[in-house]
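Cross-check.
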Amino acid sequence: MAVDGTLTFSGPTPLVVTSPVAAGVELIDWGVAGRSWRRRTVEGAYQHGSALVTATLADAQITVRVRCKGGSWADACVHRDLLFAAVAQRSYTLTCDVEGVVDVWACQPADIVPIAGNVIGPEWVELAEQEYVLTIPAYPVEVSS
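Predicted model, tokenized:
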């Protein structure tokens, strides 16, 4: 079962990922990791603990699971290549719309891992599908929501 939503990757190589789809790139699920802080503190020999000087948010990590589908294995590979191009951009905007809740993130190139590892088995070829997990670094504060 997949999430009912849409992800839009903008920029020079745009891509729209929806769910469900018969052919194309299908959104299975997605999420944003919790917040992580970069802290700068000072410590002294005669002071308990430490004192916070500054704290800024570290980059957010957006995790997306997608399925590239086609009428044939060649079609699935075309959709895979479009996905790879969309998330390889130096910077792009990712708009997430799930059940009417819209979040917009400024993103960097994504890491991509195949669900089945680096082996493409005959079952994937027969189904004309490939699944991937994307880890997308994003500016820690949403562009808008």
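Strands lie at 5-9, 15-18, 24-32, 37-42, 51-57, 60-69, 92-98, 101-107, 111-114, 129-138. The longest strand covers residues 60-69. Passed to J.P. for a second look.
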